[in-house]
Amino acid sequence: MLVTGLMIPRPTPVTAHRPSRIWCMRCENGFIDNGQQHWDDRYSKRTPAAPRAPEILAINPEMTPLVPTSGRALDIACGRGAQAVWLASRGLNVVAIDVSGVAVALTNAAARASDVADLVDARQQNLEDGLPGDLQDFDIIVCQRFRNRRILEVLSRRLRSGGVAFVTVLSTVGLDRSPGRFHASSGELVEFLTSADTEIVWDLEANGIASIVIRRT
Ligand SMILES: C[S@@+](CC[C@H](N)C(=O)[O-])C[C@H]1O[C@@H](n2cnc3c(N)ncnc32)[C@H](O)[C@@H]1O
C-alpha cells in the first residue's frame, strides 16, 4: 500500500558550518573538512619518507632520463617528501608544497636525512585556489595523487620550454567500484594539460589511475 503525506524531517545539511573543504584522494567520499587538520593528523603517525621516484617511473623506468639533473623542480602536494627528496638527490633545486605543516616538517627531515636540505624549499601552503603566481619556470613539475582543476589547467605554463610534468590522479577508468566525485573522468588529464605549446610524452588511464607525462615545447 502506498502511504502518502508522511512528513520525513530533512537532516540538517552537514555543509552548513564547514570552514573549508579539501579533497582527500584516499577518503571514500572525496572531500573532508579542515583538510590541513586531517592531513596533519594522518602524518603525525608517520616518519620521514625515503626518497622515491614519481610513481610513473616505477612502471616506466626507461623514462627516468626525462628527469633533469639540474635546474628547478616543483612538487605539488608533496606529502612526506619522497619525490621532492628524490628530485633533490638528482641535483635539482626543489620547491615542495603541502597544506599540512606536519608533511612539510617530514619533508624537511627527509631532506636532511638524505643530505639535500640545501636543495629543498618545503612550504606549507593551501593550494585549493590554485598555484601562486610566483611559481614559474620549472624544469620539472610532479603532481602526484592531488587533483585540482585550477592547478592542472595552468601546469604546462609553469614549465620552462623543454620542461616536463609528471601527473598522477585517481580516475574513473578501469575502476572496480563506484567513483567518488573527485575521480578524473576519461580524457581529463589530456584535456587539462595540453595546449598549443605542449606535447604529450606518455599517458595511461587504467585500473582507477590516470597518469600523464607532458613536455612544454
Ligand atoms: C594522497 S596525498 C599525496 C602525497 C604525495 N604527493 C604522494 O604521492 O605520496 C595528498 C596530499 O595532498 C595534500 N593536500 C591536500 N589538500 C591540499 C591543499 N589544498 N593544498 C596543498 N596540499 C594539499 C595533503 O596534505 C597530502 O599530502
Rg is: 19 Å
Average pLDDT, rounded to a whole number, is 88
Unreliable segments (pLDDT under 50, ≥5 consecutive)? 1-21
**Total count of strands:** 9
The tally of domains stands at 1
Distance between termini?
A: 68 Å
**Which strand order do you get reading across the main beta sheet?**
5-4-3-6-7-9-8
Main beta-sheet strand count, sense and barrel state = 7 strands, mixed
Taken as a percent bin, the fraction of beta residues is 25-35%
What letter string, H or E per element, gives the SSE order?
A: EEHHEHEHEEHEHEE
Task: Tell me, briefly, the overall form.
Answer: globular
CATH topology: Rossmann fold
Query: What is the tally of helical segments?
Result: 6
Fold and architecture overview:
By secondary structure, the protein is of the alpha/beta class. The chain has a single domain (42-216), classed as Rossmann fold (3-Layer(aba) Sandwich), CATH 3.40.50. It is built from 6 helices and 9 strands, in the order ββααβαβαββαβαββ. The strands form 2 sheets. It has a 7-stranded mixed beta sheet. It has a two-stranded antiparallel sheet with strand order 1-2. Strand 6 (138-144), helix 5 (149-154) and strand 7 form a beta-alpha-beta unit. The chain is globular, with a radius of gyration of 19 Å. It starts with 20 loop residues before the first strand and ends with a strand. The model is unreliable at 1-21 (pLDDT under 50).
